[in-house]
Amino acid sequence: MMIFLVNLAQILLMILAAPMAVGIVKKMKARLQNRQGAGISQPYRDLSKLFGKELLLAENASWIFRAAPYIVFTSTVLAASVVPVIVVDSPFSWTADVIALAGFLAIGTFFTALAGMDVGTAFGGMGASREMTFAALAEPALLMSIFVLSVSAQSTNLSVMIHHILEAGLLLKPSIAFALIAMLMVSIVENGRIPVDNPGTHLEVTMIHEAMLLEYSGRHLALIEWATQIKLVLFATLIFDLFFPWGISGTVAVSALLIALGLWVFKLIVFFVLLVIMETGLAKMRLFEVPQFLSTAFFLALLGMFMHYILEVGAQ
Amino acid sequence: MSSELLQQIITMGAALMLLISFALLSQKRMLSLLHWFALQGIVLAAVTALVGYTSDNTELYISATITLMLKGVLLPWVLWKIIRQMHVHREVEPLVNIPMTMLIAAALVVFSYQVTLPIEHLSHLITRNTIAVAMANVLLGMLMMITRKKAITQVIGFLAIENSLFFAGVGATYGMPLVAELGVAFDVLIASVVFGLFFYHIRDTFESLDLNKMEK
Questions:
Q1: What is the least distance, in Å, from the CA of A181 to any CA of chain B?
Q2: Which of A172, A300, A314 lies nearest to residue B129, judging by beta carbons?
Q3: Which of A30-39 are b and which e, b meaning 16 or more Cβ less than 10 Å from the residue's Cβ?
Q4: Which residues does residue B210 pair with via DSSP β-bridges, in sequence order?
């Protein structure tokens, strides 16, 4: 019973804390750029404002355009429910599969792109075509970097993988280092952060994700924005689970859960500080360089896989 | 330090060697190519010194020092001088496009792993796992030599092969005898001088370093 409640709590935690996390990122970024910035609860106020606003639909919007925000939000929440946040085992841990996770994320991307094309504006179509190009390259890199860990754990189940990593302890493994770098590169692309896409703009010729959402308003826009915020926390949590799972609780004891929660928040803050420094320091890369960026990520993950077989399996 | 940790560090060095070989293949600019080449020399020297420490072999310290001076500093600097003086085009010109080259390179890594597997079973050194990486590095260096148009990039490919052979020697048998190593180091030095002279002659005769023009 307890484990059900804890699991529900960790899913709700991720969904409800996501806007705050994005608020923290925005605030840190503003301070680093010598701006005052909005308060960290601003994303909640934005969301509640958007939920209260009138819904405007384009004249030729079909049911896909209306259904897409709900599908995107649901698939993101489902993906979030797969990833362990503070407790490793869950009654549904047999569903916590990384391939299913990648599938949920792909559904969201697919429907965002469809909705972008549905109303037939130039920006929507352009954004959709770019998003699909990059998604097609990002997904193999994402899966390949996760598989590097899967082959040593001999499972694609997240809970089993985390247990395996916790048991193995801290090892200096080149394969895992390569997989981590590949994973970080993919998460930048998947979340549309700065070297690839700018999350803070609606008026750029090079925008990708925002271009597909230009026609959305009211609660539709709120749902999509919220899903985007969840996705950022989701990727951060996935990276912690796979590469730095230390501190995550194996039991439902209250003290262990509190420690796990505290460490999760700490890891998130560290991750966001690094993200903000990177976003402030780097200029956006040219759009045509993104496929090269992603193929580098893929080859790093592939090298990680080779390293696992050549240098690590052979050593035993 | 425990031998467990040393082995992990040497493994990491081997992984870096392979990463650098891939990076050399994927570079588009001459200058970054030279940076990666210099880094390869430095990593090679570090791995050699580590293996020397593990096996209590003082001769390896000497060859690590020579490697660092020669391949980490001197050769990249000489090549950079040549590029500057001859006004070589800054971009690397590959014959096969880069993603395709990378895929071929990935296939070569699998091939060399398969080929060296029986050799690894014969060895008992803690560096035995690096043999496959060294072999893959040699093949990647050859791939670089045959897929580039410019004489300079081909020479970098050649020097990368030399680095990998040295790495293979360190990994397979804890290094060659010091006399052989000094000889090879001297050979590479002389070879780089000869290459430099050839670059000038090729350019004087054909007005370009593009080797395709020599065939006409």
A1: 12
A2: A314
A3: eeeeeeebee
A4: B150
Closest residue by Cα to residue B140 from B32, B46, B34, B17: B17
Would you say A235 and A101 are in contact if contact means Cβ atoms under 8 Å apart?
A: no
The one-letter code for the residue type at B214 is M
Would you call B15 and A175 a contact, using CB atoms and an 8 Å cutoff?
A: yes
Taking the C-alpha atoms of residue A35 and residue A134, their distance in angstroms, rounded to an integer, is 32
The residue count for chain A = 316
8 Å CB contact of B133 and A171: no
- Has residue A205 got a pLDDT over 90? no
Partner residue opposite A311 with nearest CB, options B22, B26, B129: B129
What's the length of chain B?
216
| pLDDT band (50, 70, 90) for residue B38 | very high
| Three-state DSSP state, B91 | strand
- Which chain A residues contact residue B16 at CB under 8 A? 174
For chain B, give the mean pLDDT: 85
Q: Which amino acid is present at B207?
A: E
CA-based R_g, chain A, Å:
20
Say which of B15, B102, B106 has its CB closest to residue A311: B15
CA distance A52 to A45: 11
Query: Could you give the 3-state DSSP secondary structure of residue A157?
Result: strand
Summarize the confidence of residues A63-67 as an average pLDDT.
Answer: 94
Shortest CA distance from A299: residue in chain B? B102
Mean pLDDT throughout A38-56?
A: 93
Q: How many Cβ atoms from other residues are within 10 Å of residue B118's Cβ?
A: 8
Q: Which helix (H) or strand (E) holds A85?
A: none
Whether A181 has a pLDDT exceeding 90, the answer reads yes
With an 8 Å Cβ cutoff, are A299 and B130 in contact?
Answer: no
Residues of A in contact with B12 (CB under 8 A): 172, 174, 177
Q: Does B60 touch chain A (CB under 8 A)?
A: no
| Phi–psi pair at B29, nearest 5 degrees | -115, 145
Residue A309 is predicted with a pLDDT of 87
Chain B within 8 Å of A297 (Cβ-Cβ)?
Answer: no
What ipTM did this prediction achieve?
0.82
Longest dimension (CA), chain A: 65
- How far from chain centre, in Å, is Cα B168? 11
| Nearest-neighbour CA in chain B from A309: distance (Å) | 9
pTM: 0.89
| Residue B83 identity | I
Instruction: Please report which residue ranges of B27-150 form alpha helices under DSSP H.
Output: 30-55, 58-67, 75-86, 98-122, 130-146
Under an 8 A CB cutoff, do B19 and A306 touch? Answer: no
Mean pLDDT (chain A) is 90
- DSSP 8-state assignment for residue B146: H
Coil/strand/helix, residue A246: coil
